[in-house]
């Protein structure tokens, strides 16, 4: 699966993001928060499915629902979200573009849940659909613990560009401390020539951008004192190509 940092989003309201969970594709796997997950299937498939693991990384119990947005979904298709249970009736595209699960999953500190899955019926169409999925507080949909994006590709039609695909590059990229309070040090080793460091918030908005040459000075400082608490994505780019991206948590 390709994972692409989203830079063009349909913004629905304002949210607060709290780093209390991690999302992965395998048990205790790599955190894929804020990524786009490509899921490939056939137009003739009755069900294209993809599951994820959710881990409570906080020190307190949390109660979670799942909120699903139809960002760019093919008409006359069907989708469904399993969270604790799988609803018997799938959602018809456009019927409920902003939908939240009825059931709640309660996670103790360190507990992992594997009940999440997105299901999609392309209904014979050759195209692709994009969904945004958030894990939210059971009492407040605007209190978002984490989110990912699904791009479901069913057929030979090209998908609209929704992000910047990362290129495989052999260099070291570190952020410390992480979580950061007043500042974080960005260290890059193994790259020559000028690069851009771009910081985006979870909505894909550019928070800051800086150019520097890691061959001359491999460290630069990111001032986080004015940044709101939450998750950010720090990307290293070369000629508009994103080379690597790391997640930064700001916690004052």
Descriptors:
252 residues; Immunoglobulin-like; nine-stranded mixed β-sheet; five-stranded antiparallel β-sheet; 21 strands; 0% helix; globular
Structural overview:
- The protein contains no helices and 21 strands.
- With 252 residues, it is mainly beta.
- Strand 17 and strand 18 form a beta hairpin.
- It is globular, with a radius of gyration of 19 Å.
- The two termini are 34 Å apart.
- Mean pLDDT is 84; it is low at 1-16 and 160-168.
| Proportion of helical residues | under 10%
> In sequence order, what are the helices and strands, one letter per element?
EEEEEEEEEEEEEEEEEEEEE
Question: Which whole number gives the mean pLDDT?
Answer: 84
The name of the CATH architecture of the largest domain is Sandwich
CATH topology of the largest domain: Immunoglobulin-like
Contiguous low-pLDDT stretches (5 residues minimum) are: 1-16, 160-168
Net shape = globular
CATH superfamily of the largest domain: Immunoglobulins
Distance between the termini: 34 Å
Radius of gyration: 19 Å
In DSSP terms (H or I, runs of 4 or more residues), the helix count works out at: 0
How many β strands by DSSP? 21
Strand content: over 45%
What's the structural domain tally?
A: 2
């Amino acid at each position: 699966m390709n994972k692409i940092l989203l830079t063009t989003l349909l913004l629905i309201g304002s949210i607060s993001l709290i780093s209390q969970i991690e999302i992965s594709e395998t048990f205790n796997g790599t955190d894929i928060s804020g990524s786009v997950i490509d899921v490939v299937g056939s137009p003739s498939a009755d069900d294209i499915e993809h599951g994820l693991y959710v881990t409570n990384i906080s020190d307190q119990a949390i109660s979670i629902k799942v909120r699903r947005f139809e960002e760019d979904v093919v008409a006359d298709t069907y989708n469904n979200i399993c969270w604790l249970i799988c609803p018997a009736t799938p959602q018809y595209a456009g019927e409920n573009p902003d939908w939240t699960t009825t059931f709640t999953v309660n996670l103790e500190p360190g507990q992992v849940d594997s009940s999440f899955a997105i299901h999609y019926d392309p209904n014979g169409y050759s195209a692709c659909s994009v969904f945004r999925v958030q894990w939210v507080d059971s009492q407040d949909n605007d209190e978002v613990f984490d989110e990912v994006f699904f791009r479901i590709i069913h057929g030979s039609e090209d998908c609209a560009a929704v992000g910047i695909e990362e290129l495989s590059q052999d260099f070291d990229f570190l952020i410390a401390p992480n979580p950061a309070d007043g500042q974080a040090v960005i260290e890059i080793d193994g790259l020559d020539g000028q690069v851009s460091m771009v910081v985006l918030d979870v909505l894909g908005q550019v928070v800051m951008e800086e150019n520097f040459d890691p061959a001359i000075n491999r460290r630069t400082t990111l001032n986080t004192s004015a940044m709101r608490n939450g998750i950010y994505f720090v990307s290293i780019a070369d000629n508009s190509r994103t080379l690597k991206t790391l997640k930064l948590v700001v916690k004052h």
